[in-house]
Amino acid sequence: FSLFILQPLLLTLIALGTGRTYLVEAVFSFFADSVHHFLFLTNYRAAFHLSTSEHGEIAETIIMNRDGCRNVLYHWSDMTVMKAVTHAFTAHNDYYTWGPIHHEFEAEYHLYDRSVPVGCIFLATYFNALGALPRLDGKKGRKRILVCDDSFSNHTHLTEDFCLDYLSLMADILREASDCDVIFKSKNPLEWIRGNFTDEIHKKEFEERMTFLNTQERFFHYDNSVQYEELLAAADIVVNMGINSPALIALILGREALYYDTTGNDMHPFAVYRDRLIFSDKHLLIENMLAILDGKRSVFDVIDPLLLTRYESFRDGNALSRLRDALSRDFTAPEPGRR
Predict the structure, then answer these.
(1) Which one has a higher pLDDT value, 148 or 339?
(2) Mean pLDDT score, 231-244
């Protein structure tokens, strides 16, 4: 009663009385975000909570810690894309990462108690797929170019126009790499992508471009019902929309990958490899992609291997086992029963 009724009421009155009305929303957000954790921990003892949120959760962590529960995070993607305000002042207690750079990149405003590298759990799917490569459509013997998109919104740096531009890049790749198959791995189903366009003209352009691509004999589409790492195991190179995780996972595994990015992002550590790994010019990207497929060059000729090691040093399929072992080692199970 005191924590979730009297304290919010008192803080609201103080905020209003001192003219700080902007604090009222923050007060109610704090208690609204944390009440479900409070109710759970009122009835059960927990050593840790495994979070799925890569940002926020300050209020949740405070309430958990009040009852002796630590808030634990394992991140799911490349956390060095940019220094985003949404990732500022995150306050999980324990941060299990692919590698140290995912914490170091934003360490000045991360409030974690500690960071522990355990590796990338997605690599296991890749190694399993190597032993039993998935059946992919296409002609046997053709090289396979795996193109991966990302979620987009006009409220982010990956806009609707950029998504449409990426589809035009696929058409260019089909034309220039006439002896290769193009495998499009979309992050979301096509219907979701279509519905995410807010502009009717953009929706129509998306439909037209996808209709054209789907009529091409060397173009194949897989949505989120197929795991990226399975497709990666059978691909010769990855071409990424923007600077994000699919290409990074490929590079960690020693597979060739390139980024197509016209957003001007210069914050990623790979930005120093502009026009060698990251391209804003379609023709230059395709030229380098073809040279890689012909064995004339490799992205690993330019990337610092020590930098890749900071992203993930294990490079095996045992990250999930290491995460489980770390959680078992680092946390003692509380006694059963109520608090």
Answers:
(1) 148
(2) 96
Three-class SS state of 16: helix
| pTM (predicted TM-score) | 0.91
Cα separation, 2 vs 39, in Å, equals: 14
Contacts of 224 (CB under 8 A, 6+ apart): 186, 187, 188, 189
Which tokens is 292 given?
Answer: 């890689």
- In the block, tokens 């956390």 appear at 79
Q: State the maximum Cα–Cα separation within the chain, in Å, rounded to a whole number.
A: 75
Sequence length of the chain is: 339
Q: What is the tens place of the pLDDT at every residue in 124-149?
A: 999 999 876 555 556 667 999 999 99
Q: In sequence order, which residues have a C-beta less than 8 Å from that of residue 316 and are 6 or more positions away?
A: 119, 123, 127
Distance between alpha carbon 67 and the CA centroid of its chain, in Å?
31
For residue 51, the one-letter residue type is: S
Single-letter amino acid code for the residue at 242: G
Cα distances from 102 to residues 98, 123, 160, in angstroms, run 7, 17, 28
| pLDDT tens figures, 103-116 | 999 888 888 999 99
226-250 mean pLDDT? 96
Buried b (16+ CB within 10 A) or exposed e, 101-119: bbbbbbeeebebeebbbbb
Return d(Cα 249, Cα 255) in angstroms, integer.
Answer: 9
The per-residue DSSP string of 161-187 comes to: HHHHHHHHHHHHHHHH-TTEEEEEE-S
d(CA 153, CA 155): 5
Residue 336 has pLDDT above 60, yes or no: no
Structure-block tokens of residue 286? 């395709």
Query: In this structure, what token pair is assigned to residue 293?
Result: 């497929």
Q: Which two tokens stand for residue 33?
A: 């975000």
Q: Binning pLDDT at 50, 70 and 90, where does residue 338 land?
A: very low
Amino acid at 61: T
